[in-house]
């Protein structure tokens, strides 16, 4: 059975990676699909191309995972690609209500099943939006995201990271 793990992945986090790695052990093939909407383009930190590049690098060690993108309804993508099952990660009960609604709607409008995989508790507080927020102030996000995301965030906020590093350096240097 094949599966699709859809999301915005702006950028992919360690929580996503945890869910993806576990899904890759359960399904023959998992497609990580960036769902994008041209009208919402400006709301993302990373462009679609940047997100795809990060995802390819972050998943290169997983042989049965591929990366794709789609600008439309998830159920249409599932039907076009004959992909089988939707995977979504759950971090906490607070995710459940929203995810339950989406899963029911996707089954109603496209007869597609959703399988939930619980992210490990150590990632329960990690989200792409929180990671973006911390990185925008030059904070340490290295544990919360795969290396490819960390590198891309440091490039995106290069001026903030450089300034912060020079402040830390001047505090630790004697005299
Ligand atoms: O990572 P996210 O932002 O939680 O992912 C949400 C996503 C992209 C999976 C969801 O918004 C989605 O499926 N969007 C595609 C459009 C769609 O099918 N919407 C109807 C769901 S009822």
What's the layout of helices and strands?
Blueprint: E1 2-7, H1 14-26, E2 29-35, H2 48-58, E3 65-70, H3 74-81, E4 85-90, H4 93-110, E5 113-118, H5 128-136, H6 147-156, H7 158-172
Bound molecules: 4'-phosphopantetheine (PNS).
4'-phosphopantetheine (PNS) is lined by residues 6-8, 35, 73-74, 102, 105-106.
Keyword list:
7 helices; binds 4'-phosphopantetheine; five-stranded parallel beta sheet; single chain; elongated
Describe the overall structure.
There is one protein chain. The protein is α/β, with parallel strands linked by helices and 175 residues long. The protein has 7 helices and 5 strands. It has a 5-stranded parallel β-sheet with strand order 3-2-1-4-5, sandwiched between helices. Helix 2 packs antiparallel against helix 6 (147-156) and helix 3 crosses helix 4. It starts with a strand and ends with a helix. 33% of the residues are buried. The model has no long low-confidence stretch (mean pLDDT 94). InterPro entries: Cyt_trans-like, PPAT, Rossmann-like_a/b/a_fold. Its EC number is 2.7.7.3. Homohexamer. This is Phosphopantetheine adenylyltransferase. Substrate binds at residues 8, 40, 74, 88.
Fraction of residues in β-strands: 15-25%
Say how many strands there are: 5
**Amino-to-carboxy terminus distance:** 64 Å
Number of helices in the DSSP assignment: 7
Q: What structural category characterises the helix and strand content? A: alpha/beta
Give the SSE order as H and E letters.
EHEHEHEHEHHH
Mean pLDDT: 94
Please mark out the parts with pLDDT under 50 across 5 or more consecutive residues, or reply none: none
> Which molecules are bound in this entry?
4'-phosphopantetheine
As a whole number of angstroms, the C-alpha radius of gyration is: 18 Å
Strand order of the largest sheet: 3-2-1-4-5
**Major sheet details:** 5 strands, parallel
Helical residues, percent: 40-55%
Overall shape: it is elongated
């Amino acid at each position: 059975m094949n599966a699709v793990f859809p999301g915005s992945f702006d950028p992919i986090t360690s929580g996503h990676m945890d869910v993806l790695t576990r899904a890759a052990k359960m399904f023959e093939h998992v497609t990580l699909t960036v769902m994008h909407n041209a009208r919402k383009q400006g709301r993302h930190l990373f462009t679609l191309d940047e997100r795809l590049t990060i995802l390819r690098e972050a998943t290169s060690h997983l042989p049965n995972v591929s990366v794709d993108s789609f600008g439309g309804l998830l159920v249409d993508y599932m039907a076009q690609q004959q992909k089988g099952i939707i995977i979504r990660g759950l971090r906490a009960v607070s995710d459940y209500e929203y995810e339950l609604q989406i899963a029911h709607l996707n089954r109603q409008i496209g007869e597609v099943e959703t399988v939930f995989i619980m992210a490990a508790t150590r990632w329960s507080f990690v989200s792409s939006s929180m990671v973006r927020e911390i990185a925008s102030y030059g904070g340490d996000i290295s544990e919360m995201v795969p290396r490819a995301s960390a590198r891309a965030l440091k490039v995106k906020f290069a001026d903030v990271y450089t300034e912060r590093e020079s402040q830390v350096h001047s505090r630790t240097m004697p005299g």
